[in-house]
Amino acid sequence: MINFNGKLLPEDSSFLNHSNRGFKYGDALFETMRATSGLVFFMEEHYLRLMASMRILRMEIPMNFTMEYIEDQIKACLLANQLVNTPARIRFTVFRNDGGLYLPKNNEVSFVVEAQQLNSSFYLIEDTPYEVELFKDFYINADMLSTLKTNNKIINVVGSIYAKENGYDNCLLLNQSKQVVEALNANLFLCSGKTIKTPPLKDGCLNGIIRKQLMRIIEEDTTYTLEEKSISPFELQKANELFLTNTIVGIRPVSKYRKAEYGSSAANYFLEKLNNRVKEIAN
């Protein structure tokens, strides 16, 4: 079941048509969230990011779009799919309503909530090999739009196909200045000694929820130092660790990039702290 504007519909329902602006122009935003026992991890952060993104794209925010309302719509979808008592992946999509060409007829919006079951209640470290490579066919624009979670993800689609065709688990994306920005589906952290770097938003990386959480955790920690600075491709092979972050996997260590092989001690260290933060929310 999916939740379309507060109405629960079967997944195979034809409730969108060829005039949908998300389909025609990518005129849409989405939040990917993780929930356990009906509780959405970092709900406030997701809500604030969605509201800020809607304002940037000049979407009209409905009066009833409070955090409590959106939580209720998510829970209704979880209940309809019998996922209230299990871990679940949620996608909350907002798109401008039909009408107009590039210039919309109006700025009113609709939303869709989807939910799928996940295997684990909390984040786990995958110890399997995970190799990445640079994707250099196309580049990310280093501007504010690149930091938003919009439906304009064609570079991620083409990059994912490239990774599969060449036997990589993921690819790292570059901006026009040839700086490493992020992975296809995650933010990037680089560990050298006791210093952890992550690209700044001005380089065009996604304003990720787990990125923010991990940055706060590192800043509060006395073992490691955080640097929000640009990363060049040359730094990748000199690093002790590379790891990726997103809302669904939490932290994913990279095991190999070209001739460089990496450990995962920092990734494991911070995953425990991330899970502790999640447990605090749950309690």
Which key terms come to mind for this protein?
single chain; 283 residues; alpha+beta; D-amino Acid Aminotransferase, Chain A, domain 1; D-amino Acid Aminotransferase, Chain A, domain 2; 6-stranded antiparallel beta sheet; 5-stranded mixed beta sheet; 7 helices
- The name of the CATH architecture of the largest domain is Alpha-Beta Barrel
User: Can you summarize the main beta sheet?
Assistant: 6 strands, antiparallel
Find the structural class using helix and strand composition.
alpha+beta
Q: Give the % helix.
A: 25-40%
Instruction: Work out the number of β strands.
Output: 16
Q: Using the coordinates shown, work out and report the CATH topology of the largest domain.
A: D-amino Acid Aminotransferase, Chain A, domain 2
Question: What does this molecule look like?
Answer:
- The structure is a single chain.
- This protein has seven helices and 16 strands.
- It has helices at residues 21-25, 43-56, 67-80, 154-165, 209-220, 233-236, 265-282, and strands at residues 2-4, 7-9, 28-36, 39-40, 88-96, 109-117, 131-140, 170-175, 180-183, 187-192, 195-198, 225-228, 241-246, 250-254, 256-257, 260-261.
- The longest helix has 18 residues, at 265-282.
- The chain is α+β, with helices and mostly antiparallel strands.
